[in-house]
Amino acid sequence: MGIIIKPIVTEKMTAQGEKLNRYGFIVDRSANKLQIKAEVESLYNVTVASVNTMNYHGKRKARYTKAGLLRGRANHFKKAVVVLAGEDKIDFYANI
What we know:
Blueprint: E1 4-7, H1 11-20, E2 22-27, H2 33-44, E3 48-56, E4 60-65, E5 68-73, E6 77-84
């Protein structure tokens, strides 16, 4: 499996992509910024100016069902925000 797991396609990240040339990805938790930069450049044929990463801790969750209280936890994940250089763009909808 590659370093990039999936792109983040939300209203907020789409707006940042259009205005600030920033794109978000869910990445492997062990990946560093240099690996993320190389992967994005090779996959999308763009030039990456900078990479910011954030580690998210999975929240504890509980829900009430007929069987009683079910407890669990959401997954931990790492998020990377990539800023592209120049006029480069990434179109996530091109392959649909």
